[in-house]
Amino acid sequence: MRPFFVMSLLFGLTFGQTASLCAPSEYIIHVEKRECAYCLAINTTICAGFCMTRDSNGKKLLLKSSLSQNVCTYKEMLYQTALIPGCPHHTIPYYSYPVAVSCKCGKCNTDYSDCVHEKIRTNYCTKPQKLCNM
Asked: Which residues, if any, are the signal sequence (predicted)?
């Protein structure tokens, strides 16, 4: 019984290190412009989930490149554009947003991702809401 337990434990640890729960997830973005009468609620997908990371307790012994933490980020994405209702003629009423097609665990690319989670920022409307289904 002992060899089976040890093998099960090793298999679990190995599989746990390679498995991640990073995948496209449904998300609602709330978009409003000061000049427009409505807030637009857009249904889209973002990359969200868990990625295995390294413990950086031994950072004095490791190279700097090995200390980077993996995040759930875009592997493939496309952009869609929505029309914000109730905008005056002198305002550009369009809003473009990313849609996650597939995701991966990797380094955060600041060219197209927000790599810092801000608890202060909220995602809500201050104006009457319209729903955008793409």
From this structure: 1-16
Structure tokens at 28: 């609602």
Domains of the chain: 19-109+122-128 (2.10.90.10)
DSSP per position, the chain: -HHHHHHHHHHHHHHHHH--EEEEEEEEEEEE-TTSS-EEEEEEEEEEEE-----GGGTTTS-GGGGPPPEEEEEEEEEEEEEPTT--TTS--EEEEEEEEEEEEE---TTT---S--SS-----SS-EEEE--
Tell me what pLDDT residue 81 has: 95
Give the total residue count for the chain. 134
Question: What pLDDT is stored for residue 52 in this prediction?
Answer: 78
Integer Cα distance of 89 and 77 in angstroms: 31
**What span, in angstroms and rounded, lies between the C-alpha atoms of 33 and 85?**
10
Residue 9 phi/psi, 5-degree rounding, is -65, -45
Task: Give yes or no for a contact between 74 and 99, defined as CB atoms under 8 angstroms apart.
Answer: no
Is the whole model's pTM more than 0.70, yes or no? no
| Joined tokens for residue 90 | 């002198």
